[in-house]
Amino acid sequence: MIHQTEETTRTEIPDPxxxxxxxxxxxxxxxxxxxxxxxxxxxxxxxxxxVSAEPVTSRRARARFRRLARTRAELSHxxxxxxxxxxxxxxxxxxxxxPFPARSLALLLRDGPLDRQxxxxxxxxxxxALDAAHAAGLVHRTLSADSVLMDxxxxxxxxxxxxIVVGQASWGDVVRKDAHLHYESPEGVRGEELTPAxxxxxxxxxxxxxxxGQQPFVxxxxxxxTYAHVSQPPPKPSERVPELPAALxxxxxxxxxxxxxxxPESASALIASAERALQVTAAPPEPVLPQPSGTTAxxxxxxxxxxxxxxxxxxxxxxxxxxxx
Length: 325
What we know:
The protein has nine helices and ten strands. With 325 residues, it is α+β, with helices and mostly antiparallel strands. The protein folds into two domains: 17-97, 2-Layer Sandwich (Phosphorylase Kinase, domain 1); 103-278, Transferase(Phosphotransferase), domain 1. The radius of gyration is 20 Å and the shape is globular. The protein starts with 16 loop residues before the first strand and ends in a 47-residue tail after the last helix.
């Protein structure tokens, strides 16, 4: 049974300096029992620091957090926010990253739907990053338009709802009024363990939102939205935007199937099917230009994996800014 209640999250700042990062006076974002602060290192370089809103006393929760934080930090993909380090201080768990971009897909969609080429250009790398995470055993727990951050036209996924694992109430007990509610899978609504297929469902919801300008199930009542995820048929984008093909309706029906086994086998498979349904050809890879004579350095350097321990190189030095929730 689903009970509606308010999620309470403390917003007071922890110690002004946490894990060697000086925190801004107030958080820029609240999510899943965590607070997100603009932070600076001792020498003034910018970072973002996401902190558990309260000290975490459960040894099991702390151990799970450390394990998942390590997995997230070791992932390297252009569409993933870069993790600098994670740790604990004073009972609070934290993760420091490169500065969160100021914009998100949710902000873009406030002006209405995007054209189909741009939608696929943005969601293709998101799908690839999700598949890389799934291959490493990590599932995004709060995938939404707000969690797809925008660094110019480069999408970057946030921290995968990492702080949800430290003892927050499950979706089966609480209807939270956060952004992920609009894209939550039926199994997530029921409080069951999420799988890669759960992310395929949420990504399909993002596809619908980006192409039509409306979230999958439009309702102001969170209870009705959760009911729709569990019991209502998926939306038909062509009924909202007649220019969209009926083939897209069939794909959305698969991607948002109530049974996880009926959904496309991966996030990338979903986007590849969307390209075919929308008759949009994926952009060819950038050509590799020949190097000038005498040049021995490679034109491209491999991006190293990121470890949980403190990285020697700082994040990009630019002011961190956040979207208000």
